[in-house]
Model the fold of this input.
Amino acid sequence: MAKSYKKQEEEEREANTGKKVRVRLPRGKEVIGTIENRHGGNKMNVACLDGKERNCRVPGRLKRALWLRPNDVVIIEPWELDDTKGDVLYKYRPNQISWLRKEGYLETESNEF
Done:
């Protein structure tokens, strides 16, 4: 019987790092970003780690599942036709954010002023 994708990915991470990790990481074209501000109607500006700022929306199937606020860390998937827009797929919890910072996936923000 073939293993599921999630099990395979978890085993690969465990083999590489020597410990179990249960934090969802971006796959394929997905990018980690931070919500800058909300526009209403499930639309918001997201500052992505690839250096771009995108106008993102929450897909209808996730509208009630994701409660998003500014400074939340999310995974987005850019649109194929327009790279300045995207869909929010996942919201990280505070303990997951601290793990991402500790492992170097998120840069710690420095205060400008």
